[in-house]
Design goal:
This protein is an alpha+beta fold and 162 residues long. Helix content is 21%, strand content 36%.
Length: 162
């Protein structure tokens, strides 16, 4: 008959019980991950442009039309982080994908663009090209949502045609 070793944990010190090297390594790793993953400024990054096929796939509605009006307002998310929220009214000439809940020649869409970010912060910058959009431009919009105002896909859900 072979003797089996059964450790007597009641005789071990607290250090011996809970501070083995492997346990300390796991605790250190968990602490590091909690710090880096929990901090949104570390894990957020600017979105790469979507391919034409991704835009077509992700958009619920695709419309072509002329920009009738552009309005924007400032939105302060936190001190030092300011976004510009753009609201576009478009006179539609074509609906290339999807159906609209209301049959109208006009559609309202919204998107945002970063105006200012706190030092050291990174993250998405919104919809490219909103600042340069002018009344009278003909655009193709790749939109999401079920009702107005529709959202513009980030980061390149606007295509200026002329």
């Amino acid at each position: 008959m072979q003797a089996t070793f059964v450790p007597n944990f009641s005789r071990l010190s607290i250090k011996d019980r809970f501070c083995s090297r492997s346990l300390l390594s796991v605790v250190r790793l968990a602490f590091f991950l909690a710090l880096t993953v929990g901090n949104s400024s570390v894990v957020n990054a600017a979105l790469p442009p979507l391919s034409e096929s991704a835009l077509q796939n992700y958009a619920r509605v695709i419309v072509v039309g002329t920009v009738e009006s552009i309005e924007h307002k400032r939105n302060v998310r936190e001190p030092g982080s300011i976004d510009l929220i753009y609201t576009l009214t478009i006179n539609m000439t074509a609906v290339e994908k999807g159906t609209l809940p209301v049959q109208s020649k006009k559609i309202v869409a919204q998107g945002w663009q970063l105006e200012e970010r706190s030092n050291g912060k990174v993250g998405p910058a919104g919809v490219n090209g909103l600042r340069d959009l002018k009344k009278g431009h003909t655009v193709r919009l790749f939109l999401f949502g079920k009702d107005e105002p529709f959202g513009i896909l980030e980061p390149n859900g606007i295509e200026v045609l002329r």
